[in-house]
Design goal:
The complex is a heterodimer of chains A (322) and B (482). Chain A is α/β, with parallel strands linked by helices and 322 residues long. Chain A has 14 helices and 8 strands. Classes of the chains: A alpha/beta (322), B alpha/beta (482).
Chain lengths: 322, 482
């Protein structure tokens, strides 16, 4: 199902009137069903006990590789670093050309042009964080300019951060309008909205912010920046999945999910895919609708992939360091 | 889970290895520290309900064997009850540790003999079994501080009869408090699931438990009847059906024997319109499909506030389509086999009655294996208090969905049953949880969860669900002369 532009989506949406005023939006968000923390975490943990072996494991590993937003977000990023990572994303395993490429490179706005050139013709997308990532603490015009820069440099996807301060202070409509404003300058780029779930803290907040972002036109909801203490967890990602599932049922519009930060092993990645499979089903099992924001995950997936192919564990010197 | 989508994520079979458990071709009775054949030489077979494969041949104890077992327990009682509590505690701690060490073996055994998914025997049954022994091991030297006087005395020989739904866990619930308080035991496991109790006998030997302190007699209903009627038994503890419980109460009436009964149930799972819906769906699923619904405290009646009915049922049906029914030894199986042909026939008949009385039947699409005893997860909507399936205990994966309008109506309907074992309340409003819990006549009331067990928490029923409590400090009372 194609994601429709936000304007027409909200015009056609049965939920159009809930964003008519701050009070209406507050009433709507606070009227969403509560989340029982113990039950949510128990369900996420139970899905983590699925035993994925042999053919299922091979399928899951390739799928996980194809869903990675291969990320470098350091102050020390250089054109050379971005070129190396781009090469890795396009050809993750030079010893096996059958390995799928990753979904996207994820970089700061000033590195978008470099990444764009490096992945040209490969099908790998370029995603850029924007809006004064990771804190988001800049005036809205600055955040919009940041976004425009990234889009102009060729970003296919924008990973924005929300104003957590405004959300925690209860200024929901302000957060909504900011997301709409970023959405408007994205043009054809797909918009991922980062909540920084570790800072929002409660599951009720996470459910509310998911709906808020989807109402504002997010193409993806994303847990975190990877820059704080608590990033993606099975429970907060499950909660995002439940939100996109319910949102599609209400509005017909499908939204993607991206857990980011802290997913380092193949085993963890497979657990997330099981969660997608049993919560959202096959419709979400592609890079168009599910992503992993990660960097070190890729090499672990490649080592597991080599193990399945050859029967032997290789080791960190048999995958490329970029 | 079946997808027709080309990019389907299909789980490959992930069977737990049977090699970890070595089942002998035949087993005798465990009496006075030794395995022996039944005096009459009779045997019966025990099957794997998932495949109908014969697992082993087990001795059929008759009156003479029961008498030998009770005599062994009587003989062992003076020395065992005279041991300092700390010494008895040491044995129980040792048993608990051995159970943990052998948990994988025992989980596979339990799954083979009972039909429950390995995920449950591994993650629920066995951890709870060990926890129960650890918990009561801790009480053994603290009985003077349990609130039953300075030196509470044991009763003597406990005759214990347990059901087939949680064979080893029900054994733990019975044996751990009995031994901690200084009683000796003759236990009869269910006819269809005798194996884990016989393996437990081996655990007792491994722990060096003195001869005769624990005796296991296998057999059918007649063996159980002989045990509860035996003159040398001081205490009878039974978990099972209300019909058999009544018979036992009649047998025991007018004797010195102390009795506890844990019988059937028709638990209400009450979902208000302000419930955490996704978690409520999980709670409904674990309430009725845990152990194929063969749970006395199952949430077999879903009472949903009418204003939430359609939304909740949609979510519930969607969730049921992801349940994986099949080989209990597969680590990804959620719903296993029904324990016996007899139980399957009962479930089938009651489901048919539900349809005949006009309730609407629904099951997710699922392929059931050709051999073995299987029943697809089923729910009935449009059920009222007048329907048989809202009143009779089905003891299977069948959920009856009823509606209510107000909290008062929810309480009235929940309590309108001859049973009173369990209930669940789903609401985000704390004051409502407390107000409801106080008015529900059920031995255990769960709030925003269901089917959670812990050795520290007493468990037992109101009305026809029985009397006496197992677990916690309360569980000591049933085995003390107080």
């Amino acid at each position: 199902m194609p994601s429709s532009p936000p304007q027409s989506a909200s015009a056609a949406s049965p939920l159009a009137d809930v964003t008519a005023s701050d009070a209406a939006l507050r009433r709507f968000l606070h009227g969403l069903p509560g989340v029982d923390a113990v039950g949510l975490e128990a369900r996420a943990a139970a899905l983590g006990t699925r035993s994925i072996k042999t053919t299922a494991k091979a399928y899951a590993i390739d799928l996980a590789i194809s869903m990675i937003d291969l990320t470098t977000l350091e102050g020390a990023d250089t054109p050379g670093k971005v070129r190396a990572l781009s090469a890795k994303g396009v050809t993750p395993d030079p010893t096996d050309r059958g390995t799928p490429p990753v979904a996207a490179l994820c970089v700061y706005p000033d590195m978008v042009a470099e990444a764009r050139a490096a992945v040209a013709g490969s099908g790998v997308k370029v995603a850029s964080v924007a809006t004064a990532f990771p804190a988001g603490r800049a005036a809205l015009p600055v955040r919009l300019a940041d976004t425009r820069d990234a889009v102009a440099a060729g970003a296919d996807e924008i990973d924005m951060v929300i104003d957590r301060g405004a959300f925690l202070a209860g200024r929901y409509l302000e957060v909504y309008e900011q997301i709409r404003a970023v959405r408007d300058v994205c043009g054809t780029a797909r918009l991922k909205v980062i909540f920084e779930t570790g800072e929002l803290s409660t599951y009720d907040n996470i459910r509310r912010v998911s709906w808020l972002a989807m109402l504002a036109g997010a193409d993806f909801v994303k847990t975190s920046t990877g820059k704080v203490a608590v990033n993606a967890t099975p429970a907060n990602t499950l909660l995002l999945m439940e939100a996109v599932r319910d949102f599609r049922r209400e509005t017909g519009r499908q939204v993607g999910v991206k857990p980011a930060g802290g997913i380092r092993t193949s085993k963890d990645a497979v657990k997330y895919l099981v969660m997608v499979n049993e919560t959202l089903g096959a419709d979400w099992l592609s890079a168009r609708w599910f992503r992993f924001g990660a960097s070190s995950l890729l090499n672990d997936l490649l080592m597991q992939r080599q193990k399945l192919r050859t029967g032997n564990y290789s080791g960190p010197d048999y995958v490329t360091v970029d | 889970m079946a997808h027709d989508n080309a990019s389907a994520f299909t789980y490959a079979p992930a069977p737990e290895s049977r090699a970890v458990v070595d089942i002998a071709p035949s087993y005798g009775l465990f009496i006075d520290g030794e395995f022996r054949e039944a005096a009459g030489g009779k045997v019966f077979t025990t099957l794997s309900p998932a495949t109908e494969e014969v697992l082993s041949e087990v001795a059929q104890a008759e009156a003479e064997d029961v008498d030998a077992a009770v005599r062994a327990a009587r003989t062992a009682f003076p020395a065992w009850s005279a041991l300092p509590g700390a010494e008895r505690g040491k044995y129980l701690f040792r048993i608990a540790r051995i159970l943990q060490e052998r948990s994988r073996e025992l989980a596979v055994l339990e799954t083979l003999d009972n039909g429950k998914p390995i995920r449950e025997s591994r993650d629920a049954d066995l951890p709870l079994v060990a926890a129960h022994f650890f918990y009561y091991a801790g009480w053994a030297d603290k009985l003077a501080h349990a609130g039953f006087g300075p030196d509470p005395r044991p009763l003597g020989v406990a005759g214990q009869v347990i059901p087939w739904n949680f064979p080893l866990l029900m054994l733990a619930w019975k044996i751990a408090p009995a031994l901690a308080t200084g009683n000796t035991v003759v236990l009869k496991p269910a006819e269809t699931t005798p194996l884990s109790a016989l393996f437990f006998a081996d655990v007792c030997r491994q722990a060096g438990l003195p001869r005769g302190v624990v005796n296991i007699v296998t057999g059918d209903g007649s063996t159980g009847a002989a045990l509860v009627a035996h003159e040398g038994v001081d205490k009878v503890a039974f978990t099972g059906s209300t019909a058999v419980g009544r018979e036992i109460a009649r047998t025991v009436a007018g004797t010195r024997k102390k009795l506890t009964l844990e019988l059937g149930g028709k638990g209400a799972n009450i979902v208000f319109d302000d419930a955490p819906v996704d978690q409520a769906v999980e709670g409904i699923v674990s309430g009725i499909f845990f152990n194929q619904g063969q749970v006395c405290c199952a949430g077999s009646r879903l009472l949903v506030q009418e204003s939430l009915h359609d939304e909740l049922l949609d979510a519930l049906k969607r969730r049921l389509t992801t349940l994986r029914v099949g080989d209990p030894l597969d680590k990804n199986t959620d719903v296993g086999a029904i324990n016996s042909a007899e139980q399957l026939a009962r479930i089938t008949a009651l489901a048919r009655t539900g349809e005949a009385e006009g309730a609407e039947r629904w099951s997710p699409a699922c392929e059931l294996p050709d051999s073995g005893y299987w029943f697809a997860p089923t729910l009935f909507t449009g059920v009222t208090q007048a329907h048989t399936i809202a009143r009779d205990e089905i003891f299977g994966p069948v959920l009856s969905v009823l509606t209510f309008r107000t909290p008062d109506e929810a309480v009235a309907k929940a309590n309108n049953t001859p049973y009173g074992l369990s209930a669940g309340i789903w609401t985000e409003k704390g004051s409502r949880i407390l107000a409801m819990a106080a008015r529900l006549r059920a031995g255990v009331v769960w709030a925003n969860t269901f089917n959670k067990f812990d050795p520290t928490s007493p468990f037992g029923g109101y009305k026809e669900s029985g009397f006496g409590r197992e677990g916690g400090r309360h569980g000591l009372e049933a085995y003390l002369d107080v």
